[in-house]
Backbone:
């Protein structure tokens, strides 16, 4: 098996998403099976919802054993080394941002491959990057975090929109994809560093 | 673009569903992104679940930019004019009833186009009309409203069943569709006016 | 209509799943429509999620009126004879275990028919057997029971894994299927009799 740069980012992104799911499940005091399922749902949820919406079957994770191994690794590491993983939370946070950037671009490109319109591709990218976390929160009976607390989906939307801006400026799709991914990572890091939030509105 | 009568009802129904989603999200104090997503899920949830179940891909809202614009309009109006929208809550309620009627008939007819049995078509009509609200409530961590409070899905089921009654009496499908839609609207309005509820059972 | 042994187990398993959904809905004080929907979701949720993931359309329950009748029967029995059904809760528990065993094997075999890998087939079997209950709990705003309380999904995973062990020992698929189903039932009965749980981990 030959792993290229994208595969490696995908694996560490999947691992980080799985760890975030496992930690959230452990806070709710689930048993190891429940923790594994929530880790799975967090890591594959976004891509699965995307594939369901566009009709790409079987959905991606059924065909990709790399993802399954990364998720097992993330869930089991969380179970056994939870305390130690927390010590590297800044590294995990960086991995998560990388995953967000990469999965957004993967989702967007899958939309393009299915000949869908640009706004729909932005939506599919955002769904791929963010809806694993929504599924995690719904299954754990929380209001989804990204709906009220973090500048997370917004980074994904901005980066995905930037992709189409760049392509419209005659920049190649490869360069646009890498730029979109990197800007999502940078926006996400800046958002947490400077505590960006969206303004709230009241009725 | 030429909009006919059905398109216009669809747009105002979608707008009303989006407003109902946005209001529910604002009550939970979500940020604008969360409000937009809940508005989307409320407005397109029913049709999306229907399309997933019967295998119609890509699901309807990925191909229909009218719906997306109506939802954006509904979500943004709720954010900026929430207080004023509440003043026209009777109008919004009427729009919602129109949407329920129309979406039920659309769902039912899509089931027929896929050669499914009559009871399944009733179920698909009800899902199309009502399950956006279920998705909204599940994502916001509420027990779905239509399961315990309102005579809402029942209006949808009665109207959809009436469609097949009329067709079995040799009434044309067009007339049956319009009659089903109108009876759903009337049942819904009467139900709220006279405070109909289903009886409850206890174990 | 000719019903064979498998059909009969499927019907009583579906009935039992529907009753478990209806009881959970009645505890939340839902109205009869809500109870019916939760009964439906509990009984068909696992197979529906499986069919969505692998892309088998329309999903199984749209084509199978036996299931719909068993669910109606389960929901209506719960509504009218809830008190009496509780007297036979041991019988219902046995039916539920039979359903878990059968649905796990059905899901696993459907995965094989779609040429998916063995671990994916184990996952699909477990999803078919267990995720109706997850859907029930998510819709009722509970943390899914199988994630923190019962040795339930574990029985399903063990049985499904046993299937592949037996097949690798050159045992015929029919015998392996029946053995897997029976061992899931036995593991489930022993687990409840001796109060087995998975160990919990803390961060």
Residues:
């Amino acid at each position: 098996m030959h792993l290229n740069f994208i595969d490696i980012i995908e694996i560490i992104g999947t691992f980080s998403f799985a760890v975030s799911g496992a930690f959230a499940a452990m806070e709710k005091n689930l048993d190891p099976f429940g923790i594994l399922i929530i880790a799975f749902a967090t890591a594959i949820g976004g891509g699965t919802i995307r594939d369901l919406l566009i009709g790409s079957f079987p959905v991606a994770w059924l065909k990709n054993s790399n993802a399954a191994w990364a998720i097992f690794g993330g869930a089991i590491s969380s179970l056994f080394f939870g305390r130690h993983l927390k010590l590297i939370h800044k590294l995990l946070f960086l991995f998560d941002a990388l995953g967000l950037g990469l999965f957004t671009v993967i989702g967007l490109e899958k939309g393009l491959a299915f000949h869908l319109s640009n706004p729909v591709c932005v939506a599919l990218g955002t769904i791929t990057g963010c809806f694993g976390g929504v599924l995690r929160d719904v299954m754990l009976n929380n209001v989804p975090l990204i709906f009220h607390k973090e500048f997370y989906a917004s980074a994904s939307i901005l980066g995905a929109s930037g992709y189409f801006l760049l392509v419209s400026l005659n920049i190649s799709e490869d360069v646009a994809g890498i730029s979109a991914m990197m800007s999502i990572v940078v926006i996400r890091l800046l958002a947490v560093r400077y505590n960006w939030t969206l303004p709230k509105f009241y009725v």
In short: Helices of chain C lie at 5-27, 32-54, 65-87, 89-113, 118-139, 153-168, 173-193. Residues 19 and 161 of chain C are 28 Å apart (CA to CA). The interface with chain B takes residues 23, 25-35, 37-38, 48, 52, 55, 57-59, 62, 65, 68, 78-80, 82-83, 86, 138-141 of chain C (CB under 8 Å).
